[in-house]
Amino acid sequence: MGSRATAPGPRDAERRVPVRDFGGIGPARRTVHAPFERQVQLVLLWKAFDRPVEWLRAGRALERVLLVATTHSVRTSPLSA
């Protein structure tokens, strides 16, 4: 079983991938680093309004993106702001 410091996974060794610290540990205590892809790809999914119908549409769009990625053997990892 991992510790709270390693639960969010490794940080990008070259600092090209933004990773938030959801565990409240801070960068000083998290020392796990790993090499990531040479050409990191980020996708932004957003909605124009903050209403339940847009939440539903965004969820459906995200579901489709993740399913299509899976069919092409593309791994995904959600980031949240």
Defining traits:
two-stranded parallel sheet, globular, 81 residues, mainly alpha
Brief summary:
With 81 residues, this protein is mainly α. It has one helix spanning 52-71; strands at 11-12, 33-34.
Overview of this protein structure:
With 81 residues, the protein is mostly helical. It has 1 helix and 2 strands, in the order E-E-H. It has a two-stranded parallel ribbon with strand order 1-2.
Uncertain spans: none
Distance between the termini: 27 Å
Helix proportion: 10-25%
Largest sheet: 2 strands, parallel
Helix-strand sequence: EEH
Mean pLDDT: 75
Radius of gyration: 16 Å
Strand content: under 5%
Tally of contiguous helical segments: 1
Write out the strand line-up for the largest beta sheet, numbering strands in chain order.
Answer: 1-2
Broad structural category: mainly alpha
Categorize the overall geometry: globular
E-strand count: 2
What's the helix and strand layout?
Layout: E1 11-12, E2 33-34, H1 52-71
Parallel strand pairs: 1-2
